[in-house]
Amino acid sequence: MSDARCPMPAGRTNPDNCQHTRLSRERGKMKMAKKPTKTIAVVAKGNVPAGRFLAGTSIPPLEVYHVPEVHPKKPGPWSAEPDKVSWIDPATGSPCIVRRESNGALHGYVGIGPDHPFHGVDYQALPHDPPIVVHGGVNYSESCEERERPSRSVCHVPAAATTRRHTASAAAVSRPLGSRAPSSGSAASPTTVVDVPDNLWWFGFGCDHVYDIVPDGYQRALAAETGASYRDEAYLVRETTNLAAQLHAIANGRPMPPLDGDRPGVGLDPFSPTRRA
Q: Tens digit of pLDDT for each residue in 157-168?
């Protein structure tokens, strides 16, 4: 007789067929199982001084690095600044970085996840309607620099290298890349743990244009005429936050948000055509 748990087709009574049917079904279920998306919980590193906030804000950084090899040798408004800071933008949940380059100028970066329509898109292929407005224009697009040391990399904070959680107002985080409910913490500083995809794509901009003072760079022509000034940490944090807000609006199909502060016109840069091979 046919087993009720494994009904046999008409004309088949061999129990081996029943066993084969069950195994086939089980294997089919195993093949249909989806591989979980790997994420990394972003938390603050132990190298952040207590009570240290990003310049001009009340946002605590995830990382603060001083890197002598890129820090300007000449004294100036940059002397006491760090050479890399990273944070999670409270309004968008986007990973953000400000990093100093070898010429002493600061650059800003924002990471986007694989669900963003611009993930993997070269900055030169970004649409101009609506344009993304940031200091000097977007001039960087790359994946995470996973092999670079943390003090110099444009990459999210790896969980293995952390010692304490990133604290931020849970109510301020709207639709982050991936988030969990606030975990237990003190009432004064609730904790939000943000899960960031491994395969982030970063867009960035630099502050070493004709209208910028570059600490270790040569004196640029027309610097006085363009009102060149040094773009400090507070300025970079503001512009990086503006970039994060625009990328977030694009991901959600919303109008471009109003931008905070002013910036020089991109047209002030001298024309430098790209040579094709």
A: 764 433 333 333
Burial profile 32-56: b = 16 or more Cβ within 10 angstroms, e = fewer: eeeeeeeebbbbbbebbeeeeebbe
Tell me how far apart the terminal alpha carbons of the chain are, to the nearest angstrom.
Answer: 76
220 backbone dihedrals φ, ψ, rounded to 5°: -80, 145
Q: Kindly state the tokens that stand for 79.
A: 């002397």
234, burial (CB in 10 Å: exposed 0-12, middle 13-18, buried 19+): middle
Strands 39-42 and 63-65 turn out to be: unpaired
Helix (H) or strand (E) holding 251: helix 233-251
The model's pLDDT over 195-247, given as tens digits with 9 standing for 90+, comes to 677 789 999 999 998 889 999 876 665 566 667 899 999 999 999 999 999 99
Q: Residue 166 and residue 204: Cα distance in Å, rounded?
A: 23
